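QA checklist item 7 of 12: single-chain prediction sanity check.
[x] sequence parsed
[x] length recorded as 45
[x] structure emitted
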Amino acid sequence: MIDFENELKKFHPSPDISDVEDVVNNQDLVDMVDFIVKTVSEAEE
């Protein structure tokens, strides 16, 4: 049987994932709603 407590002690998050998370959270990304609103407003002009 797997000892989950022991396995969790050995767990270390991948440094690459932490770096990606910081980059994504610190950027002002345009989501689909912003894109649709911009497209519709440009089409109305």
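[x] summary fact logged: Residues 32-44 form the longest helix (13 residues).
[ ] second reviewer sign-off
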